[in-house]
Amino acid sequence: MKRKNSFYVVLMLFLGIITLSVFNYGNRDLVLNNSSQIKRSAKKADEKEKIVLGVHGLNQDIFTFLTDQVNKKGDIKVELKVFDGNSLPAEGLQAGDLDVIIGNHKPWIETFNKENNADFVMLDDQFAYASQFGIYSTKHEKIEDIPDGAQILIPNDPTNMQRGLQFLEKLGFLTLNEPSGEFISLLDIKDNPKNFKFTEVEVSMIAGAYKDADAALGNTSVMQKAGIDPQSYIEEDGKSGDFPIGLVVHEKDKDSEWVKILLEELNSDEFKDKFNEIYQGSQVILEK
How far is CA 87 from CA 1, 105, 111, 184, in A? Predict the structure, then answer.
């Protein structure tokens, strides 16, 4: 009887060990499967299959080239969206319709962040270019020829308006007060001895309107896109390096793999050669 009982005890222990092993093995598979799913989810969150790049119309040609080059290599799919308004790409990025933009300079982006509680980051330390800023006129060949009471077109956004007013002060046309707000505006003109009349114009529209004015302050890239010789300015401010233009993304995306892919292509010899071919010096790639 004792032997029989011992046999049953051993049998029960054996069955218990088998059951426990099967249970643990199943749990191990469950843990491994869950771990794999978590890893795949994390990878999927960082590695987009497609990104949407927003640019201004005046830069459409060069960023069409960039898009084509990236898509040929197949590491990621890029869709290009082109906008006419200066602020529209940034608004699209803020709304979540775009993943990345390029075309506005850094002071402009910093202003947009403050005014819209945005978290944009410009990666200008990894790639940047700049546009020159000058005074254009079809009526006057030299700065000193601009008459008293002249009508001057000036960009209506805060950073470019400040740049234009400081340029005119540097040339001796104006004296400016300290800014009453964050940026110098027309309200901060202290002395205007030539009694210039200023008209505020959206920066991308200046090329289409400047022939009707005595002079206009604007970017060389805008003038070139309108078919105007970008080097035909009568004076240039020499401050392009203070206004770099680079990729702009949300803070959370700045180290993403797809951002690295775009930066690699922007820094390629093929892209730089095409950039120089298109812009012919009206915009220049800045040294890192």
Answer: 93, 11, 11, 20
